[in-house]
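Problem: given the chain below (181 residues), write out its structure.
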Amino acid sequence: MKFIKNLSILCGGVILLAACSSTPVAPEPSAPPIVQAPMVQPSPVRPAPTAESKVQSVVIPPYLDSKNPLSTNRSVYFDYDVFAIKTEFNPMLELHGRYLSANPKLSIRVEGNADERGSAEYNLALGQKRAESVVRALKLYGVKDSQMEAVSWGKEKPKAMGHDEAAWAQNRRVDLGYPSK
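Solution.
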């Protein structure tokens, strides 16, 4: 019986091996050989015919150019309770005066300011006197009355918010206000 059992296991193994055998697979057809095409140099790109640009160049007026002294130097500072212009500001006023007289269609606002000391009425009057003294100085360089408007802000528009002499010195001033466009 042992013999039959071994024989049946052996026959089963042979049958399994026969079933697992596969038919030989034909090799895949090989891909056609890669043939490299000769290198072709691209033709040079010819520039398009030049046409006039329709974009207009932008010209920034000097008073709007952040690198120009007309834009960076616009304040005249005053001593306490005084509306006389210090001589150190004469070159700056001359620069603005000559520019404005050369550009008669341009107008500015001359804004007088005062520090926080004193009453509102007193500071408005002092700011107005400071603005008018700058207007008179600009007239010396040919600026017309119609190009300037003198206004006073009194102590309403401080440049520095402190309550000491350094802040007050910055607030005692006249600013030249050019148009923003």
